[in-house]
Automatic annotation (TrEMBL):
InterPro entries: NTF2-like_dom_sf, Pathogen-related_defense. This is Pathogen-related protein. Residues 17-43 are annotated as: Disordered. Residues 24-40 have a biased composition (Basic and acidic residues).
Amino acid sequence: MASSTEGVSGAVEAMHGLQLSNEDPYRSHMTGEGEKDTAWRHGGPPSYHVVNSLFEQTRTQEWCKGSLERVVQDLVKTWEMELSHKTKLEDFKTLHPQKFRFSVNGGPWLTGQETLKVGSYNALLQTKLEGEHGAYKASQETFESSHDVFRAAFPGGFAWEVLEVYPGPPTVAFKWRHWGVMEGPFKGHPPSHDTINSIGTCIAKVKVIRL
C-alpha cells in the first residue's frame, strides 16, 4: 500500500517539539489548554493503553526520542487520533484544513473534510480489486461501521510503527507496519489468532515550523 499526503503541519526544529500528552507517550494534542474547546467524537479524549501495550511488546523498531523516525511516528499517530476522535477539522493540529489532501495507491485525492467523513480505515482501504482481494469494501462502510469491523477483529489493538524514514522534511517518505492479532471475526471469517501484518509506504509534504 502506498499513500501520498499533502498539507501536514506541526513539525518543529529538526521536527522536534510535539507536545505529547501526559496521558499518552506517543500522541499529542489530546489534553491541555489547546484542547479546551475541542469537539470530541465520544465526549472526551480517547485512551490508547491497550494498543500502546501491543505496540511496546511487539514492535520491531524502538526509535530514540528526538530522532526523525520517532517524530514521524508520533506525528502520524497523532494524525490518526485526530482523524478518529475529533469531529471538526478546525480542531486538528496535524494538518492544514484547506491544504490537506490524501491519496492511496494512485487513487483519487481526498480533501481533509472528505477524509474526516469516511474515516481512516475507509480512506486507506480504497480499492477496485474484486474477489478475495476485495473482502473489505470501503465504499459500503461508514465511519462508524469501519471502526466496529476492526475493533471486533483486533480487540487487543491494531498497532502502527515506522520502519524506515528516507528523505527529511519538507518532503518525508517513510515505510510503515500496521499489525494486530486476529482474535475476533472479520467479515464472516472466524478468528485465526494469527498476527496480521500490513506493510506500506507514504510520501508526506509537511510544513516545518522552527521555534
